[in-house]
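A note from the maintainers: we've had questions about how concatenated examples are separated. There is no special marker in the raw files; a new sequence line simply starts the next protein. For clarity in this README we add a label.
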Amino acid sequence: MVWCDKRESVLEWGSEEIIIPYRSPVDNKMHRYFVDFYVKMRKKDGSIKKYWIEIKPYRFTQKPEIPKRKTPQFMTEVMNWGVNQAKWEAAREYAQALNCQFIVLTEHELGFGKTYK
């Protein structure tokens, strides 16, 4: 991540270093979730903050709308939504216990021009 390498405030960072166990609502089994990024930063007030960051397209962060006809594509979207919610809830709880903050960033937060619905 060039952004991290070019920021003096970034003290350390890594990719897919945080592994979080979560229970999938699809098969009710335990799985491992690899968070996209870990970033340790010095804030403007001098304090240190640790972030666990997931990068996803905006459309994957929105609950699927129920169509008139429940197609296989819709069913896949619902399963993916459920799995992502389980991963992210486990990540939030685990991060909070370790004094970190878990966040999901999309193209909106990252400043990309194209948006998805």
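[label: protein 2]
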Amino acid sequence: MISIRRVDTADPIVRHGIDLMISECFVPSDWTDLKLPRVRRDYGAWWVAYVDKKPVGFVSVVGASKVPNAGYLHLVGVVPSARGHGLQKRMTKKVEEYAREKGWKRVVSDTVNTNVASMRSFIACGFRPFTPDEKWAATYAVYWTKSL
């Protein structure tokens, strides 16, 4: 059984679970010379996906600082053993629901230009590549936007 629940990252057990998933999702060898994503668990809204009560994925969103009236999908990951079942898409929908509740007009994000799986997931969720007025990620990033 799959469930996706909003979580409180002030809870040390939740933080530890997210840290474990991040270390499993973002393996340094996958990033070669790229830096691992900077993780801020102390702000924004977070959700965790569970399969049979085991945490297998996470997503976070914050107000976008570089794009007006938008949410920034800050970080999303699904552990390798749970990939291929649409969890990233389902978690992205939670972010979109939250963004609508906040009154934001769109959601933006970025991916590493080699992360084909995430790019395909964004496209399947209705996101499109765009060029922001002010870039916030590395030169090898692809920027994504979806109007709500």
